[in-house]
């Protein structure tokens, strides 16, 4: 009775237990994390914070992957130091974010640089204790200024920058397998919500009430799909049940953030499994406009050439991720939207538009329809456009254009795209073979290939038909009269004799001398 009374005072729903868990320290003999899988720079960040007197742990997905015997792609650190305190301890550290203020500690430069993301333990605060605004991140900027904990009218968290103890930080994380902390110095895992057991059982379980957690951040729905596909985990029934009914909340998420989540979903190395998981949860259509362009109304890849093209692209992406090679979101998106671009391109050419301007217009139309202002992100849209605009250029294999094309920075992506088109039968495989041989060939081999292409063009051209110049109608009639006439009265009655038709001088010849008058 007393507990219920206290819960009521604290605004906790009746019949629902507190999401705060219980601290369990798991020793190395039980968790068996391999230290060789750790990132030296992440360990250095933890040690630097600990040496300064702060608590610090590797946290989240990195701990989950370590427990599963996988080398994490990214390492995040959680600490009780504030962002300003963290920044002061590192030479290259930057405070970023508004919704969540975090610190990026940067090591290295250029392509070899690495970012360790450091977050401060956050307090567990319900929506009833937050300030509320009627708009979103864009429409309520003035109201959000200077505030630490804010939600919108639907309960979605717009600001969450109130610091708290580790036990509360764990409770505000999304899934149990993502709410564990690892101290690399003591080789100790701290688990508040049974994440270790769920990881071993391959179960994805949300912390707290599922509806409340999805309302706080609808993107957790997409994260559930991603983790289930990537890890091969099953969603726990209470975690899965409200997903479809709450999917409409994703419409309130900024388009740029949703776009980023889609890219993550398809570049985990399990893109086809992610599509299957979306369909299973009823989310394949109506969430991402790009997927709407690519999938059938039932949420499947199309049959035949259209679907096979995307399938091969996804299989290639998954293979590259598995091999630890880089993947390009622009290439993947270009493959996903190619059929729609190609269809629009064909219609414009049929209407009389020249091929290259028609393709440019088709690209603009698809960007407007499927990507919107995300296309303004610069490099991503530019790379997609270059891949597409190269395709008609591959048809022309003469002159200096072939040399210019193979020297372009995006040539390899454009050629890989061409090869995919050949693999599904959209173009002749010989065209892709020719470009591969040309790109890799010596100067002599290239000259031979160009001559081969010229000869093939000559054979394809229809034979020229030589026609005599059209004769003047009057001259034609006179010729006919002369040819048919046999003299005599009939010929005389045909009228006066016609003037002799002057022969046309061949072009370029000099005029003859004018004869003198007699």
Name the features.
Hydrophobic Seed Protein; 4 domains; eight-stranded mixed sheet; three-stranded mixed sheet; disordered N terminus; disordered C terminus; PolA_pol_I; mRNA processing
Structure description:
Residues 497-507 have a biased composition (Basic residues). Residues 452-518 are annotated as: Disordered. InterPro entries: NT_sf, PolA_pol_head_dom, PolA_pol_I, PolyA_pol_arg_C_dom, PolyA_RNA-bd, tRNA_ntf/polyA_polymerase_I. Adds poly(A) tail to the 3' end of many RNAs, which usually targets these RNAs for decay. Plays a significant role in the global control of gene expression, through influencing the rate of transcript degradation, and in the general RNA quality control. Residues 232-294 form the tRNA nucleotidyltransferase/poly(A) polymerase RNA and SrmB- binding domain. There is one protein chain. With 518 residues, this protein is of the alpha+beta class. The protein has four domains: 14-124 and 162-200, Beta Polymerase, domain 2, CATH 3.30.460; 126-160, no CATH class; 209-296, Hydrophobic Seed Protein, CATH 1.10.110; 329-459, cca-adding enzyme, domain 2 (Orthogonal Bundle). It has 25 helices and 13 strands. It has helices spanning 2-9, 28-31, 40-51, 61-67, 83-88, 141-144, 166-171, 195-201, 210-216, 219-231, 237-240, 243-246, 255-266, 271-280, 289-294, 304-322, 329-350, 355-371, 379-393, 401-406, 411-423, 429-440, 443-460, 473-484, 488-492; strands at 24-26, 56-59, 76-79, 93-96, 102-107, 114-120, 131-132, 149-151, 157-160, 180-183, 188-191, 203-204, 234-235. The strands form three sheets. An eight-stranded mixed sheet has the order 1-11-10-2-3-6-5-4. Strands 7-8-9 form a three-stranded mixed sheet, with no helix packed on it. Helix 17 (329-350) crosses helix 18 (355-371), helix 17 (329-350) packs across helix 19 and helix 18 (355-371) runs antiparallel to helix 19 (379-393). The protein is elongated, with a radius of gyration of 35 Å. The termini are far apart. Mean pLDDT is 83; it is low at 1-17 and 473-518.
